[in-house]
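Before relying on records like the one below, remember that each one covers exactly one chain. Contacts with other chains, cofactors or solvent are not represented anywhere in the record.
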Amino acid sequence: MKHALGAFLKQGTTKVGIATAITFQLLFSIIWMTGYAGVSDNTGNLKIAIVNEDQAMGTKIVQNLQANLPFHTEVVASSDEAQKQLNDRSVQMVMHITADFTKQLQTAGQIVPITYTINESNPSMTKSIMQAVAGNVTATVNKEAVAAGTTAVLTQMNPNLPSEQAAKIGQGLASKVTSDIQSINKVKDMPNQMLPMMLVLASLVGMMIMGMNFAVTGNVLGASLSKLGKLSARIVVTVVSAVGIGLISAGMVVALGGHVEKGFFALWGFESLFLLTFGLVAQMFLTLFGNAGMLFNIAMMSLQLVSSGAIVPRELLSNFYHTVSNAFPATYAINGIMNILFGGSGTGKEVGALFLIAGVALAIDVIVVSLKKVKAAPVGQHLKQTA
């Protein structure tokens, strides 16, 4: 037993395995703890679009909200423009005050809704935060309406309104305004909500391990094949594998009842593209740094999971993580897969970004392989090949 244990521990692969496990713990701990630090303090980065069609009470409400809400608020001229921004994820919620808001406030027994629209094609945390915000905003509107002297405002807007009636209306405002929360791009259930994260996580890990094994294959082949021959074969196998794995993954999502708004072929094509991109990036690091490239891949995987918006909205991350996420393929994979699964503005931007990242990774891989020197094959092996 002692001899076997000593022999086992002397192997380089054993040491690399232990080092990799330790590295996983260190990198994940550092990146995740720093990446999610201050998330609760960054809610002010979320944006709310306000469409106000009421120039009386509505204007005052908007002014109060802009002064007091801990969020970025933007007054948008039309409901259509606000909905477009919401669909594009430029804003996280749209608040709509109708043109007859003040008139309804003056009507005895009338319940006045403020409409809030949320885009569910986002991390689930976004929906939860915005639903809580809607309730708080409505409560704030009720409170501010009374505190601001609504009775006097109503009397000024309608001089013929008896002061006693104005007072009664003002006192009743605290319970007159309600929340009407609506959604676009609705997600059916929890498994579908988590699907983008799981697809990207499985793709990152799978293509990273595949790249590692391709590197081992290249080392085993040694100089029996030319370096460009091995590179060409690796690229072809990677492309074919990405398409095949994408087909299997998309097929499983549809077969298991996944919510696919844009259809099976859109999902298959986009999955194949980000699988290919993940694979080329992982192989680029292995080409650049050899076995140490796995450490870079582990760090990249952790960074991408934190910053892609799969778990926590990117708007809540620190400036550093939000900025670097623009260079990571997982960011575009998450955005595109959400658009395809749940609905959104399309995937043109995401497809272009993934092609660009894949192209850069492939170019670096080709250049490094071309410049590397390969040891000559043993004489015996060369004679065997030419025989």
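The first strand starts at residue 47 and ends at 52.
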